[in-house]
Amino acid sequence: MTIDALKARMPGYAKDIKLNLSNVLQPGVLSEQQVWGAALASAIATRNAELISAIAAEAAQRLSPEATEAAKTAAAIMAMNNVYYRFGHLTGGDYLSMPARLRMNAIANPGVDKVDFELWSLAVSAINGCGLCLKSHEKEVLGKGATKDAVQDAARIAAVLQAVATVLEAEDALAGETRAAA
Question: Would the pTM count as exceeding 0.85?
Answer without folding.
Answer: yes
